[in-house]
Every structure is written in C-alpha cells, then in structure tokens.
Write a structure and sequence with these properties.
This protein is of the alpha/beta class and about 375 residues long. Helix content is about 40%, strand content about 20%.
C-alpha cells in the first residue's frame, strides 16, 4: 500500500486492488487497467480511448465507479481502463480487439463504453472476452449512447437539485460542456422539462444563443447508419460561436460539465456564475475547485451520483432487461440519492461530495468487512 500511495496519492482502504499496464510493441498499443474494489461484485467501468490518459486519471475514474455503483445500489464494484491513442485512428478496430485479448484473463472487470469507445467497440470486446455492456440492440444490449440514459439521469438529478434551492427547472437556463452522446441527451431531457439550453460546446468550440438552442438545429442523424453529425460545426445553426472556455463563465442557472476531467480548476473557478453544477462527466472538477464552489454557495451534484444512469442501465442489460426498464430503474435511485445527499449535506453542514462519499463508502466497507477484507 505504501508504494501505491506514493504513485497515486489517493490509495486507501478501498483500493485499488489491481493496477495493470499493457504494451504490445507490434501495434504500439499502450493501455491501463485499474480494478479499484470488488467487494460488491465484479468491477464495472468504461474503456476510455484518448492519447493523454494517465494512470492516476484511470485510478480516479475507477474510484468514481466504485462509489457510483455503491450509491446506485447495484451488486458491482468499480474499475476503469484506458487505451492510449487517438480514437479516430484508422486501425481502431484492430487496437480494440488486441486490447480485449489483453484483458480477457481479468474476469473481475466488466468493460463498458466511455469517451472514445462505443457500441461497436463493445461488440468487439464482448466477442473476445465474453463480457461487456452497452452493446447494440441487435446483440441483446442496451446501447447507452443511442438511448441517452446517462444524460436522462443527469437531468433528473438537476431537477431535484433545482427544487432543493427553490428553482424551477422549467424556464431555467443551462449550458452544456461536451456535446457528445451524454451532452446531446442532456439537451433533449432539459428541453423536455422546459429548461432553456443557451450554450453547448465540443473540442472545436462553443455555440451560444440566449434565446435557446434546439437539438434538431444542432445535429442531424444519418438514417442508414445512425451516425450523428453536428450541424453547428458546419455553420448550419443559428447562434454565436464562442471559445469553449467561455462557456464556463456564462450567466446561467445550471452548468453541466460533460466531457473531460478537470475542466474546472482553481485557475478558472471564479469565472463560474451558475447556481447549480451537475457533473455529467467523471471527475470534471478538481477537488479544490469543487470545495471552493461549495464554499461560495454553488450547489455541486457529484459525478458518481448524477451520472450513474449508464451503469444502472448496464446492470439491467447484464440480467437481460429492457431499455424501458432501465429508464425507470435509473430515475428512482438517482432522484432518491440526490435528495438523500443534499439532506445529509444540509443537516451536517458538509459539502454534497462529502455526504455522497460517506453514503457510498459505508456500503462498500460493510461488504469488505463481511468478506474478511478489513
């Protein structure tokens, strides 16, 4: 444990249980697997594909999955993996298949999709390992990106948070950082509740319109392939182009960071003007920035509480459930968890993350004690 603490600076009694680095010289494939904790069951966690992912980041993401799965009340532990490389590389299928073969023996880890991977990648993983969630419907899966269950859960969390501070989500303004599958689902769900999304962003920049943005004006879907392309990056959508970093400083009621980790830090935290932040991405705020916002009175709903819809749906998929069932099973625990976290936060005078971690760690520690791991 001393060596792990030196490497990560975060390791504790929960884990990590396993940290594995892979390298295949022939393909120049470098990858990382972290299984954080399996006291509640095999570790579920996505495969991230990006060129700049670090071991520490994968560990932090794996820990978020441990807490997320515990808070969601499902019988799975937490893990995460990463393939270091550009998700747009032409030999991606070969890389994903090679990675699948590397993790085949690690049967305490069940992969799912994450940034840079999708249903097709999961089909390859499942073909090689016999494990995986987020598969195409045709393979008996619940396609998480297609149905938007994670974004749906984020907006359910946002509505409970808004009620907590006396804000009506109908008529509230929102900005979404990250306009991939989760961000797009967030926009649709917010609009369905009457909120006005005034800004969205991706790696190419952001689009801002104080009158509100509409999903059908931002993206188009190829009916044959199902592939989504962004109209606003082709100059086909109304609104003003702004720098992506400007989105965090907009005057909005609700801010939804939904892309990369650590996008709000002490360097830009004072630009944030939102009253509520709902973390759709994993670890989108640094710990000190999140604490600073809480001290300022900004309500921050932690990632592993707000964005647990995907893994809840994954657990439904693993037992052969339906898309419709997954939406109902996502709604109830997320809304209940947000209420419980905010009630404990108010009663104890602590930040929501502290309250959420207290609740989630309690279940994991109980399972560890029952299994003789403590």
């Amino acid at each position: 444990m001393g060596a792990e603490t030196e490497i990560f600076g975060f390791a504790d009694e929960l884990g990590p249980e396993k940290v594995v680095h892979f390298y295949l010289p022939r393909l120049r494939l470098m990858a990382i697997l972290v299984v954080d904790n399996t006291a509640l069951g095999p570790a579920i966690g996505g495969i991230r594909m990006a060129p700049d992912v670090s071991t520490q980041e994968v560990f932090r993401l794996a820990r978020a999955m441990t807490l997320k799965n515990s808070a969601a009340g499902i019988t799975y532990g937490g893990g995460k993996s990463a393939i270091l490389g550009d998700a747009r590389r032409p030999d991606k299928d070969e890389i994903v298949r090679a990675f699948a073969r590397l993790i085949r023996m690690h049967d305490d880890y069940i992969p799912g999709p994450d940034m840079g991977t999708d249903e097709h990648c999961m089909a390859i993983i499942k073909d090689e390992t016999g494990r995986g969630i987020g598969l195409h419907r045709e393979l008996g899966g619940i396609p998480l990106d297609e149905v938007g269950v994670t974004g749906y859960g984020v907006v359910e969390a946002a509505e409970v948070a808004a009620d907590f501070v006396g804000m009506r989500i109908e008529g509230a303004t929102a900005a979404i950082e990250g306009f991939g599958a989760v961000g797009q689902a967030c926009l649709r769900a917010l609009a369905a509740k009457g909120a006005r999304v005034v800004a969205v962003s991706d790696v190419e920049g952001a689009l801002y319109d104080p009158a509100g943005l509409h999903y059908e004006e931002l993206v188009t879907r190829d009916q044959a392939t199902g592939k989504v392309s962004k109209l606003w990056n082709r100059g086909c959508a109304r609104g003003t182009r702004i720098e992506g970093a400007e989105l965090f400083g907009l005057e909005v009621d609700i801010l939804v960071p939904g892309a990369r980790p650590d996008v709000i830090t002490m360097a830009n935290v004072d630009r944030v003007k939102a009253q509520i932040i709902v973390e759709a991405a994993n670890i989108p705020l640094t710990a000190d920035a999140e604490k600073h916002l809480g001290d300022r009175g900004v309500l921050v709903i932690p990632d592993f509480i707000a964005n647990s819809g995907g893994v809840i749906a994954g657990s439904v998929e693993l037992r052969g459930g339906t898309v419709e069932e997954s939406f109902e099973l996502v709604k109830r625990p997320i809304r209940a968890n947000v209420r419980d976290v905010l009630s404990l936060s108010r009663a104890e005078g602590i930040h929501p993350r502290t309250a959420a971690e207290t609740m989630a760690r309690r279940r994991v520690l109980t399972a560890m004690k029952d299994k003789g791991r403590l």
